[in-house]
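Many introductory courses stop at the sequence. We go one step further.
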Amino acid sequence: LTVNALPGAEVAAGSALDVGCGGGSLVGDARRQGVDAFGVDVSKHAIEHPVEGAAGHLALADIRSPGAVRAADVVTATDLMEHVHEPDLDGVIDSLLALTGRHLVMCICVARVPADEWVHEPGTPVPLERAWIAVAGHVTIRNHQYWVEKFTQRASGKLRIDWRSMHRFGQMLALHSKLKAVDSWCPANILILERV
């Protein structure tokens, strides 16, 4: 994935924030393309071991802490929401919305069939049949419609689902040979919102 594929990122003078950036691969890619990109993560290890081009542009931060992160034109959050316990979702979503200038682009691990939906209650043991999901740190696995409704409710009057960009992004994914091979980058996992 390159930052040029993201909605709103075609404006090189714009800014991009990657929430849950890990070592900053998207940040490094965006900076090489002239975008003022920066990233935040709660993993100290990830921030201390940046990929080429991301050093100095990553910060250890929790987006729910007021003032911890500056807003950006385009905010990305790939492989983030499924790692958030359900009781904490509203706070994380509200923070993402507040940080978004023009577009919020997410890739969320979703349940493809009802039997795959699962929510881990904090403080409870993980059932053996769900251990394979929990090992990856996935604690909130819901279907795509759940996320559409959740973000629509929280974003009311601020941002709206950008169906056109989601469709265009899905077409790009279908044509990109490397991304086509990655199961998580599929239209069912993508959610894009735009500022109203």
